[in-house]
Amino acid sequence: MQVTIRDVAKASGVSPSTVSRALAPGGAVSPVTRERVRAAADRLGYQPNQAARGLITGRTGHLGVIVPDLLNPFFADICKGVQARARGLGLTVFVSDTERDEGLELDAIRTLAPQVDGIVLCSPHLSGEELGSLGDFTDKPIVLLHRKEPGFGCVTADLVEGMTDALTHLHALGHRRIAYVGGPRSSWAARERAAGVEAVAASGLVEIVQVGSVAPHFDGGVTGAADVVLASGASAVLAFDDIVAFGLISRFTVRGVRVPEEMSVVGCDDIALSGMAAPPLTTVSVPKAHGARAAVDLLCRILATPAAEGEQPPQRVLLTHLVVRGSTAALDRRQRA
Amino acid sequence: MQVTIRDVAKASGVSPSTVSRALAPGGAVSPVTRERVRAAADRLGYQPNQAARGLITGRTGHLGVIVPDLLNPFFADICKGVQARARGLGLTVFVSDTERDEGLELDAIRTLAPQVDGIVLCSPHLSGEELGSLGDFTDKPIVLLHRKEPGFGCVTADLVEGMTDALTHLHALGHRRIAYVGGPRSSWAARERAAGVEAVAASGLVEIVQVGSVAPHFDGGVTGAADVVLASGASAVLAFDDIVAFGLISRFTVRGVRVPEEMSVVGCDDIALSGMAAPPLTTVSVPKAHGARAAVDLLCRILATPAAEGEQPPQRVLLTHLVVRGSTAALDRRQRA
DNA sequence: GTGAAAGCGCTAACAA
DNA sequence: TTGTTAGCGCTTTCAC
Known about the structure:
The structure is a homodimer. Chain A is an alpha/beta fold. Chain A contains 13 helices and twelve strands. In chain A, strands 2-1-3-4-5-11 form a six-stranded parallel sheet, with helices on both faces. The first copy, chain A, has a six-stranded mixed sheet with strand order 7-6-8-9-10-12, with helices on both faces. At the A-B interface, helix 4, helix 5, strand 2, helix 6 and helix 11 of A face helix 4, helix 5, strand 2, helix 6 and helix 12 of B. The structure holds a DNA duplex. Chains A, B: One of its GO terms (molecular function) is DNA binding.
């Protein structure tokens, strides 16, 4: 079977507790003993049993990440980021894909909570109340990633600024009538982005044509939205996210409308695909890996210093930036066409 | 704190052991008691502590999946599949993204092994010897997914047949000179697929132009390969996987070569993107979710019936099928162009 | 059918 | 600095 702490103890001629101390970071052991124990542990290939340790310390050494869809590269990137940071901290991570199903999401939280030290939750769709009621199920810390909700530690990106940058860019290119294809109404991120767009519209910088809301799947019903955009007389379109943007471009191509010559397209997220597509997508870059790392760090900070009663956990807002690529062009190029 | 088995015991007026039995599937308890215990457990919101249970039973209730890159939708799909099946079995899954780094992969196996009941390993790059030496680190069962290696339980797809179907399809369309852009030489899947292509070439059905090997990233150096294909006089190209195929198409577009009119392209894997791209990709569909489920099931079977000494664990080969979409066309259309 | 007791592998008091 | 003891929450003998 497995090598236990007692095997190491016997092999190095000390007691199990000494082994425990020798292997722990701040254990009070003589350097000689520590070395001897280390050597024995290495030789035997000793791996502490996390479960047994956790029973005592109350720490599992595990983190949970919950995302709506791993196939969306945005979330795949987030999982990679969480994982990479966790690995650096000696933590292993459970990944739960909830298939955009709120029931599964609640289940996942309930199942994961007892088995982890904390959870990084990407939950665009759960309502604020549902989120708030999570405290009834568990007292494990939950950090919201790319969503802001009172009472939770949060890491978000400043999408209002991001949308503003995107529209300002289009304005600078001469576009005055711009369509916005929104994301699902139930999504927090979609509402946030829409708010950013509306703020710009209210400022009168450009005219915004709102074009419904669309699910961010590759197989989502973007076709109709693309046709509406085409009919609207807009010379440019801003999409809820890159996936929607690709869907639009695909439909534009079918309809014989060239991007960017006849239609400028801006996405949001900057998923890995965006730089490689033809044309490469101009998009609002959201810090995915960085956000993931920040969420893990925030989780660890909360773990290290339990919040005082009623104290609001920290909320961190990251910066976005516009990446100008090949899917946007000056309006006059279109007129020449 | 947490609700323990003793809280439930007290609440239902029985001993902890009775609670344990009442909640276990095959526990010998009177129906009345079981009901009473169940009710109390529900009322208190009792969740058995997996760690404590595992300490005794030797089962963690956890599974590990190790993949080279979560951003590759092929592997994202696999993780989703493993997850979905595991959820149905009451298991939670650790996901480890090894960033295509063999060192990280070995680390991941070593780290994960003690914390899980078994591992689903997608490891294209580890050598057969390295794989074989895994037994020194752990006796936890490891099932190889999309790779075959003696001594391991394996779930693979029949890519030799898949490649044959693809080339036969192109042949039927009138193509006689076909380029093959291979994957990384260190990859088992790449070698397997190449073998399939070579088998067809040897049969004399079509002429195959081998065009080096290319990394399956979206940002990989496909450009050069595309140019070689163009220069080779081939009228069609078969790519190692869909991602490479997209890279090729992207370059063809830049070079002004129309797909499928002037160049037919076939991918492999059938990632989610493939059906949505413009043009939608003709590709060899590999059963991703199905393979993932089969791997989990195989793992569970091995767990349930430990293999006899020296006995070869089961190996399962799944079928592929060609999905004909819009990236392939008959050769004469090209001549008309 | 049920309870008492032992112990999984480990860490944290407490002594020495 | 080190060893001894107790016990984390649970399951599993073993009695009854």
